[in-house]
Here is the input.
Amino acid sequence: MQVEAHSANETVEVTDGVHLTQLAVGDRMSMQHVHIEPGAVVPEHSHEHEQVGYITSGSGVFVVDGEEFPVSSGDAYHLGSEEPHSVEATGDEPLDGIDVFAPPRANPDWMD
Here is the structure.
């Protein structure tokens, strides 16, 4: 077993107001923390990894194929491999959550 403290990992501001922290990487999946300031947007992108996530606080809107999917604290979501998506934090407080990727996203672009 391996334990990773959030504070032991580098948080990267990948675009204005969007902060990602790689938390743990295994052989078959990886996990990251997401922190999006109110009004900030993760631009549309896609990746080979299947993605599931859980919103721990705040609210936002995912856009997938032109369709809006509102999310808020306590919601879980699933994005398929290569599915283009974006998300915006829409509330007065930051949107925070956890993302899990399979296969693992060991060296995402944003870590460079």
Notes: The two ends are 27 Å apart (CA to CA). The chain has a mean pLDDT of 94. The longest strand covers residues 18-25.
